[in-house]
Each structure stands twice: as structure tokens, then as C-alpha cells.
Amino acid sequence: MKIKIAEFSGYCYGVKRAMDLAWEELTTNSDKKVYSLGPLIHNDQAMKKFTENGLIVEDSIDKIEKKSIAIVRSHGLPKDFYDKMDINSTQIVDATCPFVKKIQDIVYENYKSGHIIILIGDADHPEIKGINGWSDNSSIIINSVEDAEEFVFLDSESYIVAVQTTYKLEKYLQIEKILKNRLKKVEFFNTICYATRERQDSARELSKTVDAMIVIGGTSSSNTKKLAEICSENCITFLIETSKDIDIKKISSFNTIGITAGASTPDFIIDEVKDLLLTK
Ligand code: SF4
Question: Known catalytic residue: 127?
Fold first, then answer.
């Protein structure tokens, strides 16, 4: 059996950085409680490894004990989180992805200087919630062409526009075109990160050259599901969480297998899958 791995697969730069920072903190600061607000990533196996080593995952700021350590995950958090942790003398390990941090900085600086902030993205996504918190939750959030066409803007105001890092470029360009026509004073910051696109493009290309694809990722990871959807357009595709989910009998009937993994799939899970296939 021949195995091919997608050129871009698994942890993106921001997730890898966050996981490395969190791991370092857990393994060097065992005398203090280490918290994260929400899971660091959407992958149960990786999170199990972290919680077994002392990470406490909480869903509310109020549950983080004073004088502990709080890890900020790669999606980032609103400004009031930092303010509250400061009052509580909690040490912050800021694992916000630098690409997300850049958006928070753009929003904060422009909000302070009197601009109105427009965020293009999903209002329920933690990244957008976090960024909005750097404008006192005053940002206008636009997530469709209809939103861009219907929102009532004021000619007297100056606007800046920033975009959720994982937003689809084509959809952003449609919205940008509308806003350019509708707004008198506006500056655009295309803050899309291309890690997601690179993973999707390389999975698509690989799936055209193999007999079957294995897509590895957590069941709650939307980017993993998307990868499986793309691959299934070109070949038989198996979406699995770990090597235990592989149906060896079925897989053995293929000559060439492609492997890709979602942005929150750790290397050790990808390696386990690879090693299992190589023994067949
Ligand atoms: S997808 Fe891009 S912005 Fe998001 S964590 Fe990864 S590198 Fe950072």
C-alpha cells in the first residue's frame, strides 16, 4: 500500500504555537493551577492529554481562581478578560494566534481613535466575540451580502473593516465590493489567514491522485468535516478520529491512500494512523 500525506495538514501555525505554550506551562509550573477558558482545541484526544497533565478547562471567567495561571487559546479573548485577570493577579499565558492579535490591535487602536468597527464574520464564533471585546462590543458584525446591503450606515462616520481569519475569501470580496459602494469613509483590512485554504487546496489536489482518502480529526471540528467533504468529491473518503476507527479490511483493498488532518489534529494521532497503514 502506498501512502501520501497532504502537503498542508494538521496543526496550523497558531494552534501549534498555542499548544506548545500551554504544554510548556503545564510541565514547568506544576505548583500553580493552570486554566483555559474553553477547550484549547476541538480535539478530545489532545485535550485529554492536557487535562491529564493538570489543565483545568472552565467555561466562565469567574471560575478561574485568583493568583493562578490562565492560558488564552489561539482564538483570543476580549479585553475585559485581561482586565479581570489583572485585578485577580492571575498570570496570563497569551497563546492568541499572532494573526488574531493583529486584528485585535487594529480594532482597539481604531476604536480608541473614534472609528466605527465593522467585523466580517460569524457573531457566534469565539474569535469574533473576542475581537468585538476590543471595541467594547460595539462592532457591527456582517456575515452576508444581505447584511452588507441592508445595514444603515452614516455618511458622517469613519469606518474600518476587518475580517475573521477563517472567512471565505470569495464571500469577503463580495461584501467588500458592496461596502466600498455604500460607505463614504472606510478603510479595509483583509485579515484572512490562508492556513485553512492551504489545507483545503492540498487535500483537494491529493484526493484527485489516490484511490481513497483518510481525513483525521475531532468529530466536533468543522474544518475537518469540510476537508472530508472536499475529498469525497474526488474519491472514497473515510473520516476518522483516531487509528482505532480504521476499517483495516476495507482500507487494504486500496493501492494508494491519501492522508490529511484538520487544523486541530495533533501529530501523534496522524503518526499512529500512518504507522498502522504502513504495517498493512
Ligand atoms: S487558522 Fe490562521 S489565524 Fe487561525 S490559528 Fe491557525 S494560523 Fe492562526
Answer: yes
What is the C-alpha separation between 96 and 83, in angstroms, rounded?
A: 16
Domain count, the chain: 3
pLDDT tens readout for residues 98-139: 999 999 999 999 999 999 999 999 999 999 999 999 999 999
Binning pLDDT at 50, 70 and 90, where does residue 30 land?
low
DSSP helix/strand/coil, 185: strand
Q: How far is CA 155 from CA 116, 117, 146, 151, in A?
A: 12, 14, 19, 13
- My answer on whether 237 and 251 are in the same domain is yes
The response to whether residue 194 sits with its C-beta less than 6 Å from ligand 1 reads no
Domain that holds residue 202: 2-10+195-278
For the CA of 12, the nearest atom of ligand 1: 6
Domain boundary (78, 96, 114) is at 96
